[in-house]
């Protein structure tokens, strides 16, 4: 592939990723933002409630910071104050309930009475409706990648449908990695994925093919360098050495080095980091390990570097898989050639044996015929008392029958030796 063509593909691929990232950001970010705001609101409400129940005017700092520990011991007067405040909160909740006016028929007159639905009656601190709403919000937050119990505006995982994360999602679509951790939630996003992948996957395949060609040219240059430096080195051996060197360097650049960076940034074990790189570059994409989605602030350069690593590493691993496939194909071809050669040899031997039997039979028939002719001519000459020229010729001739011989010759088509039958006259 020409350098100009590869450059055009690279620009088209990069631009296509940014276009896809922009569209996914527009389609998915508003939905995610609503879930985030709802989750943050619930946590804010719970924080305000804790501040109200455990304010610093009465409880000391030790008690307030120990509220997260369910086994913390409270003194009797602290429990009294706490229960009083909980009761005040429940009384306030009771006053803020939404009452409905309903008429009830009595014996003589209709009476109007304020009533409330059962699902709105507060149980402890929450009503059934509030509890169901919290559970739904927790589920949506978990599906969106937010930690449902410790996510607020100050401490939460970054938005997954911001622009750069959307570009990352576009890359997982066109490279068919498809982690599946944060799929589109809107109808528009899901429809766009279909049409985006139809064009993006062939474009990515062409771009990766060009990168693989560049790597192949690099290996060829290394092979030529080996031959120049070592005159006695054969082309096949130089090619093996070049591929071994490039394989060693590629594993270090696309597996070991990224794994060390991921190990340091994500706090994963080194084995898990290498596992993540292989699952990503081989497009298996389980999604059990995904870089850049934890609850922390990432350096944007880290995310960009991971994208470049994955795209170029895809071409490297595709080249390795192609080499392995070619090696397997060569072994299969060699096995088939050997099987065909053995079949040709067995057929040739069978044909030669058949020809030998037929020629031997013809020789015996010819010899028997000559003997009969000689005997008949001898009898006639004995009767007549003369010897004809034919009989003289037959008597004086010492004709030998053809004798079959077997020669072992080399068969250049199969590289094996084969038997051929010849005749000695």
Structural description of this entry:
The structure is a single chain. The chain has 425 residues and is mainly α. It has helices spanning 3-53, 61-65, 76-95, 128-143, 163-174, 187-229, 235-266, 270-281, 300-384, 389-396; strands spanning 100-105, 110-115, 122-123, 126-127, 403-411, 416-424. The strands form 3 sheets. A two-stranded antiparallel ribbon has the order 1-2. A two-stranded antiparallel sheet has the order 3-4. The model is unreliable at 393-398 and 413-425 (pLDDT under 50).
Question: What distinguishing features does this structure have?
Answer:
two-stranded antiparallel sheet, mainly alpha, 425 residues
Low-confidence stretches: 393-398, 413-425
The count of strands amounts to 6
State the secondary-structure class. mainly alpha
N-to-C span: 65 Å
**Percent strand:** 5-15%
Shape: elongated
Rounded to the nearest angstrom, the radius of gyration is: 45 Å
Strand order of the largest sheet: 1-2
Share of helix among residues? 55-70%
Mean pLDDT across all amino acids: 76
Please report the number of helical segments.
Answer: 10
- Spell the H/E element sequence: HHHEEEEHHHHHHHEE
List the helices and strands and how they pair.
Elements: H1 3-53, H2 61-65, H3 76-95, E1 100-105, E2 110-115, E3 122-123, E4 126-127, H4 128-143, H5 163-174, H6 187-229, H7 235-266, H8 270-281, H9 300-384, H10 389-396, E5 403-411, E6 416-424
Antiparallel strand pairs: 1-2, 3-4, 5-6
Helix pairs in contact: 1-4, 1-5, 1-6, 6-7, 6-9, 7-8, 7-9, 9-10
Structure described in brief:
With 425 residues, this protein is mostly helical.
